[in-house]
Each structure stands twice: as C-alpha cells, then as structure tokens.
Amino acid sequence: MVADDISNILYMVGGKGQLQVHDNRISRWLKLPELKKTCYSGCIHERKLEISCGSSYTAVFHPVANKWQEKSSNTKKLHDDKIVSYENRLWAVGDLQTYYSYGNIDHNLGIGVSDALVQEWNCWPSYLPGMTYRENFKVLQVVVF
User: Is 106 strand, coil or helix?
Assistant: First the structure.
C-alpha cells in the first residue's frame, strides 16, 4: 500500500497487475491502466508511482498522463525487493543473488540505489554476518521516517 499525501490518493499494489487506487478527495475507487507484470512493492517518487516488478524491471505510473512507463535494467539484480524513495533517490532492499559457475546460488540481503542520471542500479550485499536472505528472514516492508 502506498499513499500520496499531496494528491490524497491511496495505491494498493500486489500480484500480477493487481493495482487499485482510492481517490480520497471524491471517495471513489479508480481503475488504472493494466500492468501485465507481477508487482512486489511500490512507492511515490518524484510525484509518480514507482513499482518494483522483479529483478530487472520497474514500472512508473504517470498520474497526469494516466499511463505506465516500463523500465528494464540489467543492473538491479534484487529479487523480491521492496522499494522506497529517500533523499530524492530510489532505494531497494531484497534478495541479492550471486550465481557461481559450478551451479550454486548465494542469497544475501542486498541494498540498491537507482542512479537516475545513467538509468542504472548500484546493488551490494549488506554484509550483516549470518544474514542469508531466505534462510533467516525475508524483507516484507521498508519504511522511512
């Protein structure tokens, strides 16, 4: 769930294209254009709704134009991630997977930040000792206050 306190709109995000919008100014549920991706989390960033849709894909909803902009990235590399807008940058926390040539995959808590200038993500492991992502915990929500 994401709230835009300036426009007084509540977005509910989750599942495959399951997005609902409540406009509190007129007390009505609104329909967004369909998004054909599975969504994990979202936030308001630069007056737009940013949605995380997997390790290499985000979608941006432009409320004035009432349309989606799809953005792919080969540098995000976070799975099941949650995103948040903080200090004018888009941040993500989730499962940073490292693949090895012999077939093993490491799952570590990863942190990423989007570089809007070059349209890429910088991601790195958190380096918390013993914090293997799927074995010990899973990020459910990210909150900034």
Answer: strand
The amino acid occupying position 142 is V
CA distance 145 to 141: 13
Gap between the Cα atoms of 63 and 5, Å rounded: 14
Taking only the tens place, the pLDDT of each residue in 6-54 is 788 888 876 666 678 888 889 998 888 888 777 778 899 988 999 888 7
CA 124 vs CA 10, 61, 69, 113, 137: distances in Å: 31, 27, 26, 9, 18
Tell me 132's DSSP state.
Answer: B
Domains, the chain, in order of start with CATH, read: 2-136 (2.120.10.80)
Question: What is the per-residue pLDDT for 45?
Answer: 92
pTM of the complete model: 0.79
